[in-house]
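anyone seen this seq b4? input:
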Amino acid sequence: MPKSQRTVIAPSPIPLSAAILPNRVLSVVLSDDEDVEWTWSSTLDGVSYVSGYSVVKREFSRSREDASDAVPARLASSCSGP
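predicted toks r here
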């Protein structure tokens, strides 16, 4: 059975009034067993924005009680901005 996919939108720049930079990450498409870790960068005037990301694999435990404590493990593939 094929895995379902979902799109995760990147967080907005901080402060929100900041102009959107052309090289920032907008969103990432993930499988339902993946998650994303955002890479943040800052401009000289103090604006923080998502400039890259790493896709991490979710590790699911066998018991339901431990499922909420699953810790992501890094996948070999990742992408980061300039």
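Confidence is low (pLDDT under 50) at residues 64-82. Residues 51 and 82 are 7 Å apart (CA to CA). kinda curious what u guys think
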